[in-house]
Design goal:
Blueprint: E1 5-9, E2 11-12, E3 19-20, H1 23-31, E4 35-39, H2 47-51, E5 56-59, H3 83-99, E6 103-106, H4 108-116, E7 121-122, H5 125-128, E8 146-150, H6 155-160, E9 164-167, E10 174-175, E11 183-187, E12 194-198, E13 205-208, H7 222-240
Parallel strand pairs: 1-4, 1-5, 5-6, 6-13
Antiparallel strand pairs: 2-3, 7-10, 8-9, 8-11, 11-12, 12-13
Length: 241
């Protein structure tokens, strides 16, 4: 039996008129036995049709989320935003949640998931969070810069088989007020920043703030992609009836 099809979001690249995404996402999904397909930013009205054709959703990293979408004024340290991508991914996330389609959300993806469920974001950790550690760290993609403590009994801890992880980190935004239905399952112990969330009432909804896909050659976090693919495979026959 062929593997499930997983849609991966991507955004505008640095070159005008181009979309881009790190190949690490594709490789990580491919290693899980699933077939990755990329989803460029479309109008939100296309979310239903797009999700009819995939078995799972991976919300990838990228630029900042527009704070107007969660009722906040723009912070002076806000980075580049892509409103078209925001609106499409919010529609994808909400539609996937309604359908109980398995979701894996990474970095910006976790932030989109939180906004999609009614939550808000810290727009700039260094200027808004006193004592915050460096979360937008320079260096190699596989450089581990801080730890994450996973909650006992959480799905994420069960999947990764550890209570404490060392992770890479490339973000200056993070979850502030938690979205409805989400539960915190990981935090940075140095400053309390939310590093992972899950939704217990859904088949598979997990978000992480670091970039596990960067380790695809080492397979350090491959279990996360494998678990997502397994959930997509298990849920596909149910959704097709």
């Amino acid at each position: 039996m062929s593997g499930p099809v997983i849609g991966i979001t991507l955004g505008d690249g640095d070159r005008s008129g181009y979309h881009s995404m790190r190949a690490d996402y594709v490789r990580s999904v491919e290693r899980s036995g699933a077939a990755p397909v990329v989803l460029p930013p479309l109008g939100p009205e296309h979310a239903e049709a797009v999700l009819e054709r995939v078995d799972g959703l991976l919300l990838s990293g990228g630029v900042d989320v527009d704070p107007e979408l969660y009722g906040r004024d723009r912070h002076p340290k806000l980075g580049r935003v892509d409103r078209r991508r925001d609106e499409f991914e919010l529609a994808l996330a909400r539609t996937a949640l309604r359908r109980d389609l398995p979701i894996l959300a990474i970095c910006r993806g976790q932030q989109v998931l939180n906004v999609a469920t009614g939550g808000t974001l810290i727009q700039d950790i260094p200027s808004e969070l006193n004592g915050g550690v460096r979360h937008d760290a320079p260096g190699r993609r596989t450089r581990r810069v801080h730890s994450v403590e996973l909650a006992a009994g959480s799905k994420l801890r069960e999947i990764l088989g550890a209570g404490t992880l060392a992770v890479n980190s490339f973000h200056h935004q993070a979850i502030d007020a938690l979205g409805q239905g989400l539960a915190v399952c990981g935090r940075c112990p140095e400053d309390g920043v939310i590093e992972a969330v899950e939704m217990k009432q859904r088949h598979f909804v997990l978000g992480v703030q670091w970039h596990p896909e960067s380790f695809w050659k080492q397979a350090s976090f491959q279990a996360l992609f494998d678990a997502h693919a397994a959930a997509c495979h298990a849920s596909a026959p149910v959704r097709s009836r």
